[in-house]
Each structure stands twice: as structure tokens, then as C-alpha cells.
Amino acid sequence: MDPEEFRRLGHAVVDWIAEYRARVADLPVRADVEPGWVREQLTPALLSPGLPEEPQPLSGLLDEIDRVVVPASMHWQHPGFFGYFPANVSLHSLLGDLLSGGLGAQGMLWSTSPAATEVEQVLLDGLADALGLPPSFTFAGGGGGSIQDSASSAALVALLAALHRSAPDWQERGVDGTERVYVTAETHSSLAKAVRVVGLGSRALRIVEPSPGSLAMSPAALAAALRADVDAGLRPVLVCPTIGTTGTGAIDPVRGVARAAAAHGAWVHVDAAWAGVAALCPEHRDLLDGVELVDSFCTDAHKWLLTAFDASMLWVQDATALPAALSITPEYLRNAASESGAVVDYRDWQVPLGRRFRALKLWAVVHGHGLSGLRAHIRSHVALAAELAGWVRDDPGFTLTVPPSLALVCLRVVTGAGPDADDRATRAVLEGVNAAGSEFLTHTVVDGHYSIRVAIGSVATEFPHVRALWERLQADAARYRQNSSVDGVDRAPPRSTHS
Predict the structure, then answer these.
(1) pLDDT for position 54
(2) What is the mean pLDDT of residues 345-367?
């Protein structure tokens, strides 16, 4: 393919994307296909009698995407997507991703792409300042930031740095079984996976009790757990407070947690994957209270900051911490710039060797929206969540499971027949909404009871979409109550016919 052919075909691909985004609201949010359907559809085209020997026209590929891929996709950019946490992919971000792919840089070392390295450094320093992180998290202040593929990877490299600081000879002898990592029951599963990956085993994971009447980590309970482990000859390695847990949006008290951890030298890693970007807004800056006391801080640009996956931002207060734990330098990677000590080699800040020029798509987002646009984006979703929470409070047929957290609202159906009946009704209503196809919801469990999560954050979500969801919840709950009251038996509502 020469540049002119690429220009022609590129127009066709951009047109397809633009058309898809223009009509995504008219599609069912969730794929309605059975397991194996995609394979059955593609096998005759791809594998019979074999993969194509000769080049095929792009139009055929786009036709197959329309025929097979679109119907079998969860449409995360749909305005009715309220499940999990958002995966914002603004069109500015897609343009940045195209530029990154066009350059095709492999930014493992400064010397392999000075631009990829230094653009990332400038962006992460600027965003640290915009979020209100202390200057010590910037390269000028002795720390620095990097763009990881996910918050899971950020947690893993933070744990590796924590292990190195806890026992500098661990690289040679490995772990010894005395290491302990402290989380809550609400902490993201990536921490448990990181503990497995580094070979600590699940016994190394300590679940810290929450403060009374809260789902947030109790600093007093943490201090007691740390002291008990130290007295037993165990070694506290890392504590992970969360700002905005996945289930309920709980916010751990970072300041109190960091002070308890400091008494035993444990690394403190803040997982603010979803909620951390809200600190761009001054009114939400209190989310970061105490962050100056922690070792590392992570928040995702690919959840709520309009940037295509993958782009998770990780900052550390000590720029030497990750390279000290992760750097391995075979002869073929040696070069004058690295040997000079004057550059950052990002391959030493992550597990893989290779890395893409992720900073370009983040730069495209900041350039295209400006900080004011990013703040407006976040504020609009927080305001919509407040509206929804108000409607829930005013309706005796529903209740908030926990107080709303930024753009996350957790709610339950109230039947008047007790918690178990409420659980069945809540589950049935969620399933009814998802079956209708115009919205998609996920759930969590709070104090042993089923709860609907409404995570507002899609690029296209506006007031009418949230209002439509609320009206559907009300209608399906009313239908459920009516059906279950006929003979006193709870049963799911019939499949919704809402458009």
C-alpha cells in the first residue's frame, strides 16, 4: 500500500467510524448473540477452504464488520451505557491514536524515540499540576509519571518497587513468605492478582476492616493489623487505599492510611483509577487529601478522561524507585544516552520492554478539549448522578444503597416484603432493563444484598438518557410488584418493550 492508496482507504475507514458513532445510540447496547455465533459467521469467510491467499478489498472487510462485529459488540460508547465504569473514547483521542500508529514508534528507550519519552514527561508533569499533586510527583521535583497500559499494571509495578524497598536483595533471593499487602474488601481485584503474579500467594493479602458505618478502610484497623503482623515477624510491604472503589465508589482516607503505613515503612500506592481525574475540578480536589504522604498514585485517562484504552497514568515521588526494581540491561540495549544518566528510559518503569507512543492520544485530548473542556465533561456527569440520586430519594419504591460517589449511584428496589424480596426484585429489574437493549447496567453487593450500579460517564450521555433510564427502572419495578402481588410469588417482569 502506498501513501495515496492509504489516503483513499483511510477516508473510507474514517467515514465508517463517523457513521458508527452517529448511529450507535440506535443500536442495542449489549450484544444479543449466543457463544460461538461470531465464529460460525466468520469461519466460512476466513477458513473455508483457508485464509485468503490473495489480497482482498477493504470494502469486504468493512462489510464483514457491519455484518458480524457490530451485532456482536458491547457498545461502550452508547449513551445508554451505565455499566462497569465508562471507557471514554473521544474522537480527538482516536485521531491521536492514528497519529501514534502512523509514526509507529517503539519508545522503550529515550534513544529509540526521544519524542515519545519527552512528550510523555511533559504531559504527565502538566497533568500532575492540573490534578493538584505535589511537585514531588513531577520530574523536576524528583519524581515523575508514566503512562501504563492499565491500573492493574500500575499496581504490579508499584508492588515490585515496594518489594525492592522492603528488601533490596529480593531480586536475587526472591520472596520469603513474610511479605504482607493490605487492602479492603472493596479494593480492585488487580491487587490480589498482583500479589499472585509476584509469587506472594493469597496468604500475603490482608483484608483491613472498614470504619464503622462505612465501606472505607479504617486507619485504626490498619494500624492494628500492621502492628500484629510486625509482632508476628511478618513484613508489611504495601498498603493500597482506593479513591473510588469499583463496587460502590468508596473513598479510603488516604491521609490516615498513609500515616499508619509510615510507622512500618510500607509503600503506599493509591488506586484512583476511576475517580482520580475528578481532581481536575477544584471542588473535588479534597479527593487527594493526604496524597503528599504516599509513594505512588494512579488514575486512568481511559475511563473518565476521554482517552481511548489503554492509558493509565502512574506517578511516583521517587523517580529511581521503579528502575531500581525493574531495570535489566542486556548489551543490546546499552547506548550513550542511557549511560549518561541524563534521560528517562521508560522500559524501566513497566513490565514489558516495548511501549507504544500512548502520550500522543492523551496530548490530542488535552489539546482538543483543553482543561476547561475536561472539567466540563466531568462536572456534567457528576451533576447527572446528583439528579438521579435525588429521584431515587424521592421515590419510596427505591433506596440508595450507599451515598452517591461522584458519577456513581448505587440503588435498590424496595418491595416492602423484606431484604430477600428486595434482592429478587432488584435483580429482576436490572435484568429487565438490560434485556430491553436501550441501556446497560451492572451490579454490586453491599452488606450481602444485591444493588444496581449506575455509572454515568459515556461520552454521549446527557440528561434525556439518564431520565429515560430512571423511567424504565420505575416502570419495570412497578411491573414486577404487580406481577408478584397476584399470587404472592416474586417473579421477573416480562421482557420490556420500551424502545
Answers:
(1) 86
(2) 96
CB 124 within 8 A of CB 358: no
For the entire predicted model, the pTM comes to: 0.94
Nearest C-alpha neighbor of 238 from the set 190, 273, 275, 285: 190
The residues pairing with 400 across neighbouring beta strands, listed in sequence order, are: 411
Q: How far apart are alpha carbons 71 and 30 in whole angstroms?
A: 9
Using alpha carbons, list the distances in angstroms from residue 425 to 50, 248, 285, 457. Answer: 50, 20, 38, 26
* Burial class for 340, CB neighbours closer than 10 Å (0-12, 13-18, 19+): exposed
- Digit-coded pLDDT (tens) for 94-106: 999 999 999 999 9
CA quadruple 186, 189, 192, 196: dihedral, nearest 10: 170
Contact 492/432 with Cβ under 8 angstroms?
yes
The set of cell numbers assigned to 112 is 529509540
Whether the CB-CB separation of 68 and 38 falls below 8 Å is answered with yes
Q: Are 21 and 77 in contact (CB under 8 A)?
A: yes
Which pairs with CB-CB distance under 8 Å and at least 24 residues apart come from 442-445? 442/83, 442/84, 444/246, 444/247, 444/248, 444/410, 445/247
Q: What number of residues does the chain have? A: 499
Give dist(CA 44, CA 38) in Å, integer.
11
pLDDT at 319 over 50: yes
Q: Which has the closest alpha carbon to 297: 133, 92, 90?
A: 133
Instruction: Tell me the C-alpha distance between 409 and 298, whole Å.
Output: 23
In terms of Cβ atoms closer than 10 Å to its own Cβ (0-12, 13-18, 19+), residue 34 is: exposed
Of 343, 299, 303, the closest CA to residue 319 belongs to: 343
**Nearest one of 12, 19, 27 to 70, comparing CA atoms:** 27
Q: Which residues of 175-214 are buried (b: 16+ CB within 10 A; e: fewer)?
A: beebbbbbbbebbbebbbebbeebebeeebbbebebeeee
Identify which of 146, 448, 134, 99 has the alpha carbon closest to the alpha carbon of residue 308: 99
The torsion of the CA quartet 162, 168, 171, 173, rounded to 10 degrees, works out to: -120
- Cβ atoms of 495 and 435 within 8 Å: the answer is yes
Closest-CA residue to 496 (of 435, 455, 453) = 435
pLDDT in tens, 243-275: 999 999 999 999 999 999 999 999 999 999 999
Number of C-beta neighbours around residue 171 at 10 A: 14
Pairing of strands 235-239, 408-413: unpaired
Q: Which residues contact 407 (CB under 8 A, 6 or more apart)?
A: 304, 378, 381, 382, 384, 385, 455, 456, 457
